[in-house]
Design goal:
This protein is mostly helical. It has ten helices and five strands. Strands 1-4-5 form a three-stranded parallel beta sheet. The chain has a two-stranded parallel ribbon with strand order 2-3.
Amino acid sequence: MIVVSNSSPLITLAKIEKLYILKELFGEIIVPKAVWYEVVVKGKGKPGAEEIEKAEWIKVREVKDKVSIEVLKGEIEVGETEAIVIAKEVRADLLIMDERIPRIIAESIGLNVIGTLAIIYIARKKGLIKEDFDEIVKELKSKGVRFSDKVIYRLKQKWGDIV
């Protein structure tokens, strides 16, 4: 399975010491150079920077389609732009991204997009995480990560926890 990630899922999972679930679920993750730079270089000393730098299963890739980058970067941030373009270039099975507008753009060009909460939820269902999902959401909120209650409700509804 080919999986590309933007920076926010990496940072979010690192904040709660759950970055490992990406490796457990997917084996390898591709990140664009802009995401690597944002998390590891600019983010030095912040949650995730060191873990991501040392993770051999996170592969950095350079975008080839510079024209698409130029078209998109006026609309969304460069890391999001590169993640979308690389996901298209490598024909990724999945793009991990949380931000609403970039997700809409990615889905509009045929990419399968999943967010961090869904990744956590799947990992919990597969037994990779022992903590209760709602407790993890509380921990994320306490660390400054924001998700709407509507998103959480829809996620639980989709995965069968709410009838």
